[in-house]
Amino acid sequence: MPSETKTRIFLEFQFAMMLISGNILFAKLVDESVWMITFGRTFFASAGLYLFLKWRGKPVFFTETKENRAGLGSGILLAFHWIFFFASARFASPAVAVLTLFTHPVMTVFLEPFYFETKPTGKDVALAILVSIGVAILIPEFGPGNDLILGILLGVLSAFTFALRNLIAKRYLSHHGSAQVMFQQTLSSAFILAPVCYFEPIPTNARSLGLIFLLGTFFTAFAHTLFVKSMFRLKLKTAGILSGIQPVYSVLLAWLILGDIPGVREIIGGTLIVVAGTLETIRYKKDS
């Protein structure tokens, strides 16, 4: 792969990470339940992607039944990933949600051999451990009560479902367009979450609706389509380790928008994550 192409893919991936990092801000900015936020974002994302595909004259479903099942099934995993992610932020804190999510590069390194003919190398394990140490440093100390523990467990579940979703999409759908893949995933997510409308009132507040619309269209449909496109061009373990930069972006965004100033833990842990991502980037550029 030409060096220019690798650079473009890397920059697209990092831009997608910056946008996805902004997702966690909506857990604080939107005064709705985790279920309603997730349903709203998937509804607007699937609607936006449907209009985009129709505008481009692209099909919205695949010709193979097996591939449609993979797309819709990975969408269910994506729905649970988002639910666990926002619930973790509500029970613990946005920082805990973001940081525990990034155990998923470690999970990916060791789950990938079940889906592809690959084995983790010593360098893979070392970089995964480095990311894990960085994340562990970022996580605040345990305090009294069960909410923090529950938040951390939900964050780990969020990471596990995210890793599985990426593996399934990469294994069965990487030869398809990223917008088509994301449409199917957000469509099935919205479908299984639709019953929430029977149990909770649909938001009528203009601020909540506007924020959920922004989350669903720009921070979900566009950002995750760009992420899937880049992920299909990278080795999955590379994408997993490179995405370890997301907690750093999230901390910076929380600082700029919410006024949460990073402390010593965030600086030290973030530095380790950046080092791991930089090393993986150098290794990726050297690969043929």
Ordered list of secondary-structure elements with their pairings:
Elements: H1 3-21, H2 25-29, H3 34-56, H4 65-91, H5 94-101, H6 104-111, H7 122-138, H8 147-173, H9 178-193, H10 196-199, H11 206-233, H12 236-242, H13 246-258, H14 264-286
Walkthrough of the structure:
The protein has 288 residues and is mainly α. It has one domain (3-287). It contains 14 helices and no strands. It has helices at residues 3-21, 25-29, 34-56, 65-91, 94-101, 104-111, 122-138, 147-173, 178-193, 196-199, 206-233, 236-242, 246-258, 264-286. Helix 6 (104-111) packs antiparallel against helix 12. The radius of gyration is 18 Å and the shape is globular. The termini are close together. The mean pLDDT is 83.
Question: Could you give a short description of this structure?
Answer:
With 288 residues, the protein is mainly alpha-helical. The protein has helices at residues 3-21, 25-29, 34-56, 65-91, 94-101, 104-111, 122-138, 147-173, 178-193, 196-199, 206-233, 236-242, 246-258, 264-286. Helix 5 crosses helix 8 (147-173) and helix 6 packs antiparallel against helix 12 (236-242).
